[in-house]
């Protein structure tokens, strides 16, 4: 199987290197990943400037764009073939529930499914060193065929797991996304150039303690596997509105 790896932590990140090592034992693995960190880029695309591609080695390439850019480029001929599957990660930090709105890791897997390729986002649910990726990389390699069997063109797979010692065997739970709220903090600095500069601080994240969610599974030591819808869904019915509504536009 020909596998493309990408991420939002950059092509030299330890998580993508761990995936390459594990998956290369049985598969042909290629990397096309951002040339630096692109965390929090969500599904951003580079539409206003050219993308720069650099060949690092026979199967390793970097891109000046976003994770979603990397997937589009791979499918449009930057590589000498079209991948069989695209794996995004392993992300340094979780991508649970509402995190998927912001995640560049998830966006790459979503973009893969949008162009008809199996897409899997993989994240290590830890915020502190040491980040140990090998057990999660091996979990993906061992179960890759089963994961692909759960994929369909209207979903991508989101895999999260706690940080555990090398050699640990995870148990997997299929889950639903959790709901997370972000209590962001800002720091301000008035610069000598007349601008006010704003910096995001650490902040906190609050997660609803619901049984069966991805956060619940990871908290209990399981690997969480969630099938995420690729396309937006309408909710409920719009009732009581006339078929044609004329809006008064301020002049």
**Which strands sit side by side, in order, in the main sheet?**
3-4-2-1-5-6-7-13-8
The CATH homology group name: Survival protein SurE-like phosphatase/nucleotidase
CATH-assigned fold name: Stationary-phase Survival Protein Sure Homolog, Chain: A
Q: How many strands in all?
A: 13
H/I helix tally: 5
| Fraction in beta strands | 25-35%
Helix content: 10-25%
Key traits:
nine-stranded mixed beta sheet, two-stranded antiparallel sheet, Stationary-phase Survival Protein Sure Homolog, Chain: A, alpha/beta, 251 residues
Textual characterization of the structure:
The protein is α/β, with parallel strands linked by helices and 251 residues long. It has one domain (2-177, 210-229): 3-Layer(aba) Sandwich (Stationary-phase Survival Protein Sure Homolog, Chain: A). It is 21% helix and 28% strand. It is built from five helices and 13 strands. The chain has helices at residues 14-23, 67-75, 104-114, 134-150, 214-219; strands spanning 2-6, 28-34, 53-57, 60-63, 85-92, 119-124, 155-161, 172-174, 180-183, 186-190, 196-200, 204-207, 223-229. Strand 5 (85-92), helix 3 (104-114) and strand 6 (119-124) form a beta-alpha-beta unit. Helix 1 (14-23) crosses helix 4 (134-150) and helix 2 (67-75) runs parallel beside helix 3 (104-114). The longest helix has 17 residues, at 134-150. It is globular, with a radius of gyration of 20 Å.
């Amino acid at each position: 199987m020909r596998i493309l790896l990408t991420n939002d932590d950059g092509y030299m990140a330890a998580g993508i290197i761990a995936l390459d090592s594990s998956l290369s034992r049985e598969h042909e693995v290629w990397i096309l990943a951002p040339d630096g960190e692109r965390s929090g880029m969500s599904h951003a695309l580079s539409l206003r400037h050219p993308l720069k591609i650099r060949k690092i080695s026979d199967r390793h390439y970097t891109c000046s764009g976003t994770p979603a850019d990397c997937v589009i480029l791979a499918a449009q001929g930057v590589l000498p073939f079209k991948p069989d599957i695209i794996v995004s990660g392993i992300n340094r930090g979780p991508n649970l529930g509402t995190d998927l709105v912001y995640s560049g890791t998830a966006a790459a897997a979503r973009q893969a499914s949008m162009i008809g390729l199996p897409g899997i986002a993989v994240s290590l649910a830890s915020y502190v060193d040491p980040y140990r990726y090998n057990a999660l990389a091996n979990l993906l390699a061992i179960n890759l065929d089963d994961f692909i069997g759960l994929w369909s063109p209207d979903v991508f797979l989101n895999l999260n797991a706690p940080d555990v010692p090398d050699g640990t065997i995870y148990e997997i739970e299929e889950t639903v996304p959790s709901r997370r709220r972000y209590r962001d903090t800002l720091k301000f600095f008035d610069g000598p150039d007349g601008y006010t500069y704003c910096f995001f601080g650490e902040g906190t994240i609050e997660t609803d303690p619901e049984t069966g969610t991805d956060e619940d599974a990871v908290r209990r030591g399981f690997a969480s596997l969630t099938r995420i819808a690729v396309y937006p869904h309408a909710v409920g019915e719009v009732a009581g509105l006339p078929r044609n509504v004329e809006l008064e536009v301020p002049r």
